[in-house]
Amino acid sequence: MRSDLDHLPETVRADIAAILRIIFTEFEDTIGRATQGWKRAGRVMKVLLHGEHARGAASPEETSVTMAGPTSQGADTPPKSYEIMLVVNDKRLAEAQYWTHTRDHLIREHAIMGRLSAPVELAVFTMTGINSRLSGGKPYFVDAVSRGLVLYELPGEPFAAPKRLAANEFREQARRLVDSTFPRAASFLRMARFAHGEGMSNQAAFNLHQTAEHAYHTLLLAHLLYSPSTHRIDWMRERAEAAVPSIGSVWGTNDAFSRRCFRLLDDAYVKTRYAPSYAIREDELVWLFERIEALVAQVELLVRQRLLLPSSRIAK
């Protein structure tokens, strides 16, 4: 794997240095307060940067995925996230609870303090977990390791040699995965329509969020055999559009109204249940129905084409 950063813009190199400081400061604080022996022996074995930033193709001055798909960077265009993969030496340390402060710190540095030029997405795995996925030919992990950058690593801990799946092997694995995820998207869309018909706008928004989440899961699994464990629609959309750029067209034009609607969708998973102030107007809800119905239809078409599936396999 490549480890030099000379090809990256200066802003990105500065961000990487800050991200590493935050990761190791927070991790050392976590294990420094530990009483269990296994936690005190915890180590970060590797830190990888992968995705477009690793290739020098997503600097703040260049292009980004917007709320309406890839476009030139502008004032209303969110920068692409830094995709950071951490490898730890104990599977218990890969649990989300040990990285809450790190993730919160990274969010503050970008969203509040403005000291990072882009958000950071942190995924934590063990060496065994990544090696098993490399040996199994999971494209997401093969790409991350083969095209990513090593930002930090302990010596003497190489990754397993990645396997390249034959086309029939890939399709069979992907078919099993999408057989469970796409029906959930279709089910949530039916529930959203019912809630809308009953005048339950917030419930409809929640179900539309879940429709989009499972549609994106389906698309990512069909292309990468992996989808992140997240309820963030903006992050899933960014990953999906990186894998299949044409899917961004379902969101239409990038204007203030469409951005507001998309933010309402992204917020719906939490705020429709826990924020009394959350409200969505009828015109916003109608727009989201149109866009998400288009998303579901396009995902079904793309997945059937990629996996050579009859329509009955993932029918609504």
UniProtKB/TrEMBL annotation:
<protein>
    <submittedName>
        <fullName>Nucleotidyltransferase</fullName>
    </submittedName>
</protein>
<feature type="compositionally biased region" description="Polar residues">
    <location>
        <begin position="61"/>
        <end position="75"/>
    </location>
</feature>
<dbReference type="InterPro" id="IPR007842">
    <property type="entry name" value="HEPN_dom"/>
</dbReference>
<dbReference type="Pfam" id="PF05168">
    <property type="entry name" value="HEPN"/>
</dbReference>
<feature type="region of interest" description="Disordered">
    <location>
        <begin position="53"/>
        <end position="79"/>
    </location>
</feature>
<keyword id="KW-0808">Transferase</keyword>
<dbReference type="GO" id="GO:0016740">
    <property type="term" value="F:transferase activity"/>
</dbReference>
<feature type="domain" description="HEPN">
    <location>
        <begin position="182"/>
        <end position="302"/>
    </location>
</feature>
